[in-house]
Amino acid sequence: MTKKFKPQPDEIQPHVHTLELKAILVVDDDQQLASALQWILADENFFVDVAFDGEEALLKLKTHEYDAVVCDLKMPRLRGDEFYLKAKQMRPTLADRFIFITGFATDPNIALFLNKHGVKYLVKPFPVQGLINCVKQLLC
After folding, report:
1. CB atoms < 10 A from the CB of 99, how many?
2. How crowded is residue 26: how many other Cβ atoms within 10 Å of its Cβ?
3. Would the N or C end of the chain have less CB density within 10 A of its end CB?
4. The pLDDT value given to residue 21
5. What's the whole-model pTM score?
């Protein structure tokens, strides 16, 4: 007894699940913190790129598309607030996808910037889960 093989029609394609990774740029001059944030966010299935100051972040922003930015405020060469204003001009759609991290939220100039632009921010030290939740809410 022989079984006949019945070929499948060419138009039937296997169902493939694709995972779209959201890209996040982490900007912080504290290299240890930036690396830790990179690992934490990568563990949550984000593609994470790192820059260690605002100038480096601007260069990366010119050549790559990001879905969100996690950025320190006080950094050498180009502060986070200055980077934000330049990034906003370069990529306007990214303006509402910034999360600032700072240990200086009570500094009058920083508080003025945060309030004036209505940006999301976390005060250092912040709970890791707080950052993860904030990023996920931003990207929903």
Report:
1. 20
2. 27
3. N
4. 87
5. 0.85
Calculate the alpha carbon distances from 137 to 11, 63, 71, 80 in Å: 39, 26, 16, 21
Q: Which of 53, 65, 70, 57 is nearest to 132 (CA)?
A: 70
Give pLDDT, residue 79: 95
Question: For residue 133, which amino acid is it?
Answer: N
Tokens of 66: 């990001």
Mean pLDDT, rounded, for 79-97: 96
What Rg do the C-alpha atoms of the chain give, in angstroms?
A: 21
Structural tokens at position 140? 């929903």
The whole-angstrom separation of Cα 17 and Cα 11 is: 18
Q: What is the pLDDT of residues 17-74, one digit of tens each?
A: 556 789 999 999 999 999 999 999 999 999 999 999 999 999 999 999 999 999 999 9
The single-letter DSSP state of residue 123 is E
Query: Which CATH number is correct for 28-139, 1.10.486.10, 1.10.10.10, 3.40.50.2300, 3.40.50.880?
Result: 3.40.50.2300
Angle at the Cα of 51 from the Cα atoms of 47 and 56, rounded to 5 degrees: 130
Higher pLDDT, 113 or 9: 113
